[in-house]
Structure formats: structure tokens, C-alpha cells
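C-alpha cells please, single chain.
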Amino acid sequence: MEGKVSRVVVIGAHPDDFEIGAGMRIIHHIRKGDYVVGVLCTDGERGGDPQIRLKEAESSAKSLGLAKLHCFHLPDANLLDLIAVKDMLEKIIEMEKPDVVYTHFRKDTHQDHRTVSKASSIACRRVPVILNYKSPSTIVSEFHPHLFHVGNEEDMRKKEETIKLFKSQLAKYNNLDLRRIKIDASYYASTLQLGENFYAEPFFANHFILNFD
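Here you go.
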């Protein structure tokens, strides 16, 4: 996965989800020249004006360097139809043919995150690598990460700059507390016995084919 150009799809239930959970990893993929596409299942209208939220997501995608940003415009906080989400994701997977997918972890207190995780697992079943990232609402007692992306101060700064583009959420919600996000990344780096200037994003392997390339 590290030795060739990969095709990557990152999936989020709402604007800002995958930036919080996998921002440094996305930055790494872009930096090495990988083809990275984002998918948003909802506009996040329960968290504010959907037009503003989508504009923020588009600004983030441009800042990161995503090749595309697909938006399903499904109802926020009401992703009850697992099959509908799965079918829409399958169309993206067929179109983009990714080697790697990043999506939500299945054990989460947010119902949309749970639905997207389950739908991703089905829709991406033939993708060689599916990794689940951690959200602020992930059930920590159930999240036992297998893999970590390690970044330095510059990587963390770039992630923070990207998250700051979601101005409507920074002003309104605790889950976009940059201090909390940075402390979390510092904590996971410390579990890897790394120094104080390192940060880590944890991932749970849904499945990982080691020799797919």
C-alpha cells in the first residue's frame, strides 16, 4: 500500500467526520500522490445550515487536495435505510475502484455513524483494505485499534487548519474542540512510545489483505 499509487475513498456520515478521524492519513495519501475521493452521506443539516456545511466541506476537500467530493444528501440523524446507503456506496465503489477505504467504526453512539459503518462494510466487501477511524462519539471501550498513522507537528498543524475550515461547527459543538482532538492524537502517540512532538491517528481493521498489490 505504501509502495505504489493507491486509489483511496474516505467516507463520512457528515461534513468534518473524516477530517477529524483521518485527517493526517488523508494528508499523507495526498502528499505521496495517491488518488483520494471523499464521500459525504448527509449535508449535516441537523448541525446547521446545510448550504454552509457543504461549502465548508468543499473548502476542506480543496484544501486537502481531494480529487472529488461525492455528496448523497441523505437526511441527517435519520440514516435508517441501511440498504439505501449501501446501494449508493456501491455505486461509488464501482466508479472509483479503490484499493483502500476509510470509514466509521461500527460501535458508535451516533446512529448515522453506525449505519454508515455497516453499509460501508457491505458495499466495500471486495475492497482489499477497509479501515475504521475513531470519531468523538466512538464507544472507546469497544475501540481497539490495530493500526496507527503517525504524524509530526507539521502534520497535526495541517489537520488542525483543515478542521478550522468548519467554522460553523467550531463555534457550536464540543466535538470540534481542537484541543481535545490534539490531546487524543498525542495520547495515541504516547501509547506507541513516541516522543512529545508526535501525534497518531488510530484505525481498526475491518479487513486488510496484506498482499493485494
